[in-house]
Design brief:
single chain; alpha/beta; Rossmann fold; N-(1-d-carboxylethyl)-l-norvaline Dehydrogenase, domain 2; 2 domains; 9 strands; 3-hydroxyisobutyrate dehydrogenase activity
Length: 296
Amino acid sequence: MSHIAFIGLGNMGGPMAANLARAGHSVRVFDLVPAAVAHAVEAGAVAAKDAVDTLAGAEVVITMLPASRHVEGLFLGEQGILSHIPAGALVIDCSTIAPASARKVAEAAAARGLSMIDAPVSGGTAGAAAGTLTFIVGGDDASFDRAKPVLSAMGKNLFHVGASGAGQVAKLCNNMALGAIMAVTGEAIALGVAHGLDPRVLSQMMAVSTSRSWATEVCNPWPGVLENAPASRGYTGGFGNDLMLKDLGLAAEAAMSVGASIPLGELSRNLYAMNSKAGNGKLDFSSVVKLLSGEK
């Protein structure tokens, strides 16, 4: 078992840290929200007074933060933690950020003799709680091999997709497809409802037909169709619309950097931007159906 520092205990990070503690790892945690720390402590983690305090004796450092600026600020800022991480520790950033930011931090870590991988996740809050996440890893082979036992306590699918930053590229590809699929699924269900169809029956049909997807089976965007989906609890507790909007923006930046064309990705980004402006930015991204159904 490893001594692990875990920084960032949001909707995803909190359950991930809890699963590490339940697996028998020694986990020291920090988050700016005291309640998030308290929940992790209830699951068996130990509270640290600040980010640097989590690093005492750490063999593995895991971060799960909202955006590139938070990751760069934590590691590279005036009070960045890179200079405090014990020699030989493995750094795993599970945030979804710009590939360039991931490479920048990894290069700074390497300059200090530290191994670092970018390991963004897929699977949503349900996957984080169940320990069934997919980890999409960028970094060298040796670092990936070192990370496997730790990642396996939080997920069941591990993909090594390339060098530093590659994990972020692959995650953005996944989320761009997910954003478009969720939007068109909501649009299709809204069309059926407008014609008097039962959204539950329509969704059940779609879930076993050619439009089958994660959006029909796990995170259906129509309220009342799936009991455990965010849509059935007021679009709360899932993957925020503004986080999807951020990821689609990063996908657009990644496309521009290599001259790729992503017309559906850009259309999806605009839809989630409109949903955010409609006041739904903090709700689960499946709330985009509100735009498509005309719901106020």
